[in-house]
Request: fold
Amino acid sequence: MTIPVAGRSRRATITRWGNVSYLGTTDEDYQGDLNDVHCNRAELDFLLEGANSALKTDLRPEDVVGSIAGCRPLVGRREARPLK
Reply:
């Protein structure tokens, strides 16, 4: 399901697989080491805020059992920016 995040123009997703729900995705510029990509606290807070708002629940960082992170290249004009 796609969910709005209150006060932001971006949306997040929730995908259910068995007894686990996956929250995603974020679209942030990444300037770090491509061998050390991880979900940071700002991204985690964004995803939990969206889930809590849409589902009327109270998920907290300690409820998270894992994360998956990666980078994808954006092809286009150099001055083009991803939507936020």
User: Anything to note?
Assistant: The longest strand covers residues 11-17. The two ends are 19 Å apart (CA to CA).
